[in-house]
Amino acid sequence: MSHIHSHPPEDMLLGYTSGKLQDGFNMVLGCHINMCPTCRESLHLHQEIGGEMICTQTPTGMNTSAQATLDMLRKECEPSPKVIASPSNHNPSGIPFPLSSHLGEKIEKLKWQKLAPGLKQHVLDLPGQALARLIWIGKGVSVPSHGHNGDELTLVLSGGYYDGEQSFTKGDLQWADHASPHQPIAMDDGPCLTLAVTDAPIVFQNILPKLLQPFFKI
Ligand SMILES: [Zn+2]
Predict the structure, then answer these.
(1) Which of 5, 10, 84, 143 is deepest in the core (most CB within 10 A)?
(2) Burial 45-56 (b: 16+ CB within 10 A, else e)
(3) How far is the CA of 66 from the centre of ligand 1 (A)?
(4) The model's pTM
C-alpha cells in the first residue's frame, strides 16, 4: 500500500491528461504519477473515459481535417492490448524516470547554486514560463518564509519536510497558491530533496531573500 497521502487536485490531473499544462508543471506531475499508484489509476480512468468519448460520440460541424483526425483516432478504438500508462519505473537512484531522463546525469553531478547555509537549488532547463528546480534542504533547515504570485507545486523526492501542521514525505505533492504563505522545514532525520515548479516569482517576507531574489531566479 502506498504511503503517499498528498496528491494533485483532479483538475490539474485532467490538465496533465489533456496536455494543457506548461512543461515545468508537466515534469512535476509526471514524476508524481510515476511514484504514485493512486494517481496512475486516476490517469488510466481519464484516458479510458477520453478514449470512450472519441469512439462513441459524433460531434457536428467539424471541418475536414478534424474529421480525418477523429476517423484516425476511431481506428485506434478497435480492440488492442491494453496500454499501461506510466508504470512505476524509478531508476536505481530512486529518481522518477521523467526527471532522470531529462537530467541525463546523477543528481550529485549537477551544478548546484547555494542559496543559504543548508539550502541549494538546480534550475531545470525546460521551455516555457514555469520554472522548475530541484531544491536540496539540509536536515532541520527552514526555507525562508514566502507567499506566491501564482501556483507552486512541490514534490518530495527524498526525505521530508513540515509545513505548519502538515508533513510531506517521499512522493507527496504539495500545491500552494497565492493565498497561502508558508515556511517548509526539513525533517530532522536527514536532508530533503524536492522538485518544485512556480509560474510566477515567489514573495519573500524578509528583506535578505528579497534582495537575493533576482540573482537566483526565484
Ligand atoms: Zn498521487
Answers:
(1) 143
(2) ebeeeeeeeeee
(3) 33
(4) 0.76
Q: What is the pLDDT along the chain (218 residues), one digit of tens a residue?
A: 679 999 999 899 989 988 889 999 999 999 999 999 999 999 888 777 765 555 555 555 555 544 554 454 445 444 433 333 344 555 556 789 999 999 987 888 899 999 889 999 999 999 988 999 999 999 999 988 877 778 889 999 999 999 989 999 999 999 987 666 788 999 999 999 999 999 876 666 665 555 555 655 65
Residue type (1 letter), 174: Q
Ligand 1 centroid–CA 56 distance in Å is 29
Q: What sign for the dihedral angle of Cα 107, 109, 113, 118?
A: positive
Ligand 1 center–CA 148 separation, angstroms: 23
Q: What is the DSSP letter of 100?
A: H
Residues whose Cβ atom is located within 5 A of ion ligand 1: 7, 36, 38-39
Sign, CA dihedral 135-110-197-97, equals negative
**Cell numbers placing 50:** 477520453
Half-sphere exposure for 6 (CA within 13 Å, toward CB): 19
Q: Among candidates 94, 144, 143, 134, which has minimal Cα distance to 111?
A: 134
Side-chain-facing half-sphere of 59: CA atoms under 13 Å: 12
Q: Catalogue all structural domains in the chain, each as residue range(s) with its CATH number.
A: 10-75 (no CATH), 105-216 (2.60.120.10)
